[in-house]
Amino acid sequence: MNLLGVMDLSSSALRAERVRAEVVASNMANAETTRTPTGGPYQRHHVVFSSVDSGSFGASLLSAGNLQSLQGLEKDIPKLGVSAADAAPVVDGGVEVSEVIADHSLPLQRYDPSHPDAAANGYVAYPDINPLTEMVDLMGASRGYGLNASAVQAEKGMLSNSLDLLK
Q: Could you read off the pLDDT of 67-103 as tens digits, one per residue?
């Protein structure tokens, strides 16, 4: 690992946590969405992280494949704003967003016969999104982001002190 290796690792984690926070925000924004362009209620999304390890044979085979699979996700969930460039792996040993997957839980059924999306029996299908769960996920993403930002600041301080030693 080079002198700036910790910054590279932390920057990959910062990007991954940002994507995670955006997905959680999208989940919360769509908690009451009963109709999507694909039909049915919105489905909650989850972010899957994986480590970047180009030293192994399997990881080297997957490195190009992950970028292509993320480009395919852009058309499936365009409102998330996740792009392959945002989630692309940068450094060996870092973290990347390998997938954003939909949760296929059954929708919640609420009786509201006056709702435009109500079925013949008067029930409306709502996404199975719990605001408390989403807030916990958002706090986790926020804390992970903050910890990695602190690591970058600490390394910047160490590099600055190292330069002062050379004077």
A: 444 444 444 444 455 554 454 445 677 889 999 999 9
Where in the sequence is the domain holding 27, given as residue range(s)?
A: 5-166
Got the DSSP string for the chain?
Answer: --TTHHHHHHHHHHHHHHHHHHHHHHHHHTTT----TTSSS---EEEEEEE--TTSHHHHHHHHHHHHHHHHHHHHSGGG---HHHH---STT-EEEEEEEE--PPPEEEE-TTSTT--TTSEEEE----HHHHHHHHHHHHHHHHHHHHHHHHHHHHHHHHHHHH-
Please state the domain count of the chain.
1
